[in-house]
């Protein structure tokens, strides 16, 4: 028996009345799957209801795959694929495997010669980079910076210096309820000649992307980013 295929299915970055971020081809594959590795069951079932015409939820085998899932348990997720069944990985938002625990399952799939197929859909990281106007040839994503303010400011200084020396765009994020604190730390730490982009609520009706020099940020009214998913991008000069 041939192995099944592991599909990597991007998830909407927020619910909208109409589909503006996932191609119909991707949705049609999702509609056929009855095995899914999901980061969050509630958000996964909400997505399925939004997509419509999927396999009934009670007929889907769900596997819980998050940052705390033990390696041994993840290994057991291979069984349906080795039995010839296709499966999908659903992130809570965005692209599986990108700042996402789905990468662990993908690594295992390759080790067992299981075909891995990434599907087209939204990634806030790349969408923010596209809209920033910064260097898209050389960039690095750093995930979440340290929670401790002193360590966070030190990391911001480090990333700014690396960007200035090498011309590399630096991308990172913060828990949405700490976004305003992150913005204030960036403005109090970085040189006025450094450029900062904030990309908030990407693909949603409330989307707002601001890209300008720190000096311009300091002289204008700051946006309220509290509890709004935001990508921060620095480019030192």
- Mean of pLDDT: 95
What's the assembly state of these chains? single chain
Low-confidence stretches: none
Count of alpha/pi helices: 9
User: What fraction, in percent, of the residue positions are helical?
Assistant: 25-40%
What is the general shape? elongated
Distance between the termini: 57 Å
* CATH classification, class level of the largest domain: Alpha Beta
Strand content: 15-25%
Number of strands: 10
**What is the topology, as strand order, of the major beta sheet?**
3-2-4-1-5
CATH superfamily of the largest domain: Tetrapyrrole methylase, N-terminal domain
Any idea what the CATH architecture of the largest domain is?
A: 3-Layer(aba) Sandwich
- By CATH, the topology of the largest domain is Cobalt-precorrin-4 Transmethylase, domain 1
Largest sheet: 5 strands, parallel
- Work out the radius of gyration: 20 Å
Number of domains: 2
The sequence of SSEs as H and E is: EHEHEHHEHEHEHEHEEHE
């Amino acid at each position: 028996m041939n192995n099944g295929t592991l599909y990597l299915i991007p998830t909407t970055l927020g619910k909208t009345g109409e589909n503006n971020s996932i191609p119909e081809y991707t949705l049609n594959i999702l509609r056929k799957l009855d095995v899914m590795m999901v980061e969050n069951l509630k958000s996964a079932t909400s997505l399925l209801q939004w997509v419509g015409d999927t396999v009934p939820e009670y007929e889907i085998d769900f596997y819980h795959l998050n940052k705390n899932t033990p390696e041994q348990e993840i290994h057991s997720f291979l069984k349906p694929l080795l039995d010839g069944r296709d499966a999908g990985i659903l992130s809570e938002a965005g692209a599986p495997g990108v700042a996402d625990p789905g990468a662990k399952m993908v690594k295992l799939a390759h080790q067992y010669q299981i075909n891995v197929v990434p599907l087209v859909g939204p990634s806030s990281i790349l969408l923010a980079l596209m809209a920033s106007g910064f260097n898209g040839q050389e960039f690095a994503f750093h995930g979440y910076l340290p929670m401790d303010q002193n360590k966070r400011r030190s990391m911001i200084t480090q990333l700014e210096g690396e960007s200035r020396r090498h011309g590399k765009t630096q991308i990172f994020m913060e828990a949405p309820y700490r976004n305003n604190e992150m913005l204030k730390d960036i403005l109090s730490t970085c040189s006025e000649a450094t450029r900062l982009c904030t990309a908030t609520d990407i693909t949603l009706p409330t989307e707002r992307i601001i890209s300008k020099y720190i000096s311009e940020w300091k002289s204008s009214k700051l946006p309220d980013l509290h509890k709004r998913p935001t990508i921060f991008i620095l480019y030192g000069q």
